[in-house]
């Protein structure tokens, strides 16, 4: 097994990324498309788009990507009639292309599944679900599917969409951090990982630490303040609390001292910094960034000593 996107998209699989409208699914899939095309010269991506408004296509640089990668990136946009039938015919053609050109890596991106898959009585026809996608996977191709949660944050349409997939992710937007979070839901035998990305104007700027992105703005600010403090040397718990009061952290973010003490221990356990309780210092807790117990230098600069 080979990763197309390390820790996220294994090759020759069917994966589903689902979330609320506007959560960043299209932004993520466009970004992944560019990464795959850049890293694998044998990659051929067909982006079947049944969801993106026509006026938003330029925002996602579709034309620019098509021009750069030529026949290796094909974009199939909306059709007014018989969208599902057109999509199924296209999928069938791609399966045949994978058979005709086994040295190529065909990757299908479907956005969104509910508009592409045949329906029965108004719902996705489970008997036809992933019909051609499975054939492509069995011949070495890869399928990445975007799917919606409804307004109640419940999985839209049939649960079989997730059950029949090889892996699934929930995607969420964190407006506090201008980021999107990718949370593994079904992993099967694949070691998929949680990911987070900073965004700006529908574009993914960079990958960021998931744990940092998956918290509120006040906690992000707190962690960055403590990391900055400890760059100059160790500080004990009382000194940290005193400094936070000096900069009005508690009042600015409406955070209590108990919450701050919880965060200090939480991020110490997660390895952002280290904590040592010293009996010869009246059991005071000292925090520092060194990975080894070297001679510590007191950090008095921040306290005006």
Number of E strands = 16
Q: Globular, elongated, flat, extended or rod-shaped: what is the shape?
A: elongated
Binned, the helix content reads: 25-40%
What's the main sheet like?
Answer: 9 strands, mixed
Strand proportion, as a percent range, falls in 25-35%
What pattern of helices and strands is seen along the backbone? EEEHEHEHEHEEHEHEEEEHHEHHHEE
Q: Total helix count?
A: 11
Question: Averaged pLDDT, please?
Answer: 88
Spatial order of the strands in the main sheet? 5-4-6-9-3-10-11-12-13
> What's the oligomerization state?
single chain
Q: What is the terminal-to-terminal distance?
A: 58 Å
Structural class: alpha/beta
- Radius of gyration, in angstroms, nearest whole number: 24 Å
Sequence stretches where pLDDT stays below 50 over 5 or more residues: 292-298
Question: Your description of this structure?
Answer:
The chain has helices at 25-39, 62-69, 83-100, 113-116, 131-138, 160-163, 210-213, 217-230, 237-246, 249-253, 257-269; strands spanning 3-5, 9-10, 14-19, 43-49, 73-76, 105-111, 119-120, 123-124, 142-148, 167-174, 179-186, 195-200, 203-208, 235-236, 274-278, 284-288. By secondary structure, the chain is an alpha/beta fold. It has a 9-stranded mixed β-sheet, sandwiched between helices. Helix 3 packs parallel to helix 5 (131-138). The longest helix has 18 residues, at 83-100. It is elongated. Mean pLDDT is 88; it is low at 292-298.
């Amino acid at each position: 097994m080979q990763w197309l996107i390390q820790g996220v998209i294994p090759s020759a699989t069917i994966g589903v990324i689902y979330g609320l409208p506007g959560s960043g699914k299209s932004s993520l899939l466009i970004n992944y498309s560019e990464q795959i095309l850049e890293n694998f010269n044998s990659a051929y991506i067909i982006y079947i788009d049944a969801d993106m408004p026509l006026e938003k296509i330029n925002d996602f640089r579709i034309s620019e990507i098509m021009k750069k990668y030529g026949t290796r990136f094909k974009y199939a946009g909306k059709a007014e009639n018989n969208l599902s039938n057109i999509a199924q015919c296209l999928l069938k053609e791609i399966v045949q292309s994978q058979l005709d050109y086994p040295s190529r890596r065909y990757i299908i991106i479907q956005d969104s599944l509910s508009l592409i898959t045949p329906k029965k009585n108004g719902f996705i026809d489970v008997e036809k679900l992933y019909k051609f996608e499975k054939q492509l996977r069995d011949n070495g191709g890869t399928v990445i599917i975007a799917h919606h949660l409804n307004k109640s944050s419940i999985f839209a349409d049939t649960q079989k969409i997730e059950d029949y997939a090889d892996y699934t992710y929930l995607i969420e937007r964190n407006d506090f951090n201008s980021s999107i979070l990718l949370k593994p839901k079904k992993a099967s035998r694949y070691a998929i990982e949680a990911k987070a990305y900073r965004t700006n104007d529908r574009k993914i700027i960079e990958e960021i630490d998931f744990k940092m992105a998956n918290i509120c703005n006040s906690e992000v600010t707190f962690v960055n303040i403590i990391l900055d403090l400890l760059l100059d040397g160790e500080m004990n718990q009382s000194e940290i609390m005193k400094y936070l009061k000096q900069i009005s952290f508690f009042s600015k973010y409406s955070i209590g001292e108990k919450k701050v003490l919880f965060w200090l221990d939480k991020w110490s356990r997660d390895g952002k910094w280290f904590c040592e309780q010293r009996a010869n210092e009246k059991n005071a807790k000292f925090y520092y960034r060194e990975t080894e117990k070297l001679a510590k230098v007191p950090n008095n600069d921040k306290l005006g000593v």
